Amino acid sequence: MIYIVYKYAYHGRKDKVVNMEMCNAMKEFLEGGRREGQREGRIEGQREGRIEGQREGRIEGKDEARLDSIRTLMKKLDQTAEEAMDTLDITDEDKVRYRKMLGL
Questions:
Q1: CA distance 42 to 12
Q2: pLDDT at 96
Q3: What is residue 89's DSSP assignment?
């Protein structure tokens, strides 16, 4: 599209004022498209950021709830952290993470 306008602006017309107006109009058109693309990119980035933040928030909330449950079982049933995690059917992989969170 740019080549066609360039060819038209510099080879099809003799009037330089019209040629400059055509070039300026095309430049404004392209800049408007760029601004629109940037705006759409920002909106998409914000949406992706919100989704990622929500996902991280759910994970943190789940971890906090599990830690509270582990602590409650340790206190109320006098269980060790290992016993509490076994009672809650926590996987071995997650047990390592929860031990670190508990400071064990």
A1: 40
A2: 94
A3: T
**Ordered mean pLDDT values, 10 residues apiece, the chain (104 residues):** 48 52 68 79 88 91 94 95 95 94 89
Q: How many helices (H) and strands (E) does the chain have?
A: 4, 0
What does the alpha-carbon distance between residue 104 and residue 101 come to, in Å, rounded to a whole number? Answer: 8
Q: What is the DSSP letter of 77?
A: S
* Greatest extent of the chain over all pairs of C-alpha atoms, in Å: 94
| Contact assessment for residue 5 and residue 26, using Cβ atoms and an 8 Å cutoff | yes
